[in-house]
């Protein structure tokens, strides 16, 4: 909740830090958090592909699963 509704605040920073500590990754293009559901089936220098959990903040406000998802590293938010 704090990440999406307290943008630009210290609370958002703390929420992002907590999510990252639990192996969630922020996707800059989709503006949502992803977590590996299992080890990726394909890993290259540019992306990894497999099944991921993601937080669906737009419609269901819950974690959902996306199979055969290609996570391009250029969309990975590395800064905290």
TrEMBL record:
Listed transmembrane segments: none
Keywords: Transcription, Transcription regulation
Gene Ontology CC entries for this record: CCR4-NOT core complex
Xref: Pfam families: NOT2_3_5_C
Annotated signal sequence range: none
Keyword check for Transcription regulation: yes
One GO BP annotation of this record: regulation of DNA-templated transcription
Domain NOT2/NOT3/NOT5 C-terminal residues, every copy: 1-76
PANTHER family reported in the protein's UniProt record: CCR4 NOT-RELATED
Similarity remark: Belongs to the CNOT2/3/5 family.
Official protein name in the record: NOT2/NOT3/NOT5 C-terminal domain-containing protein
Taxonomic placement: Eukaryota, Fungi, Dikarya, Ascomycota, Pezizomycotina
């Amino acid at each position: 909740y704090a990440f999406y509704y307290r943008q630009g605040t210290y609370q958002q920073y703390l929420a992002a830090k907590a999510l990252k500590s639990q192996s969630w990754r922020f996707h800059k293009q989709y503006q949502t958090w992803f977590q590996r559901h299992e080890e990726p089936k394909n890993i290259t220098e540019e992306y990894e592909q497999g099944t991921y959990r993601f937080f669906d903040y737009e419609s269901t406000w819950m974690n959902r699963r996306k199979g055969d998802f290609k996570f391009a590293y250029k969309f990975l938010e590395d800064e905290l």
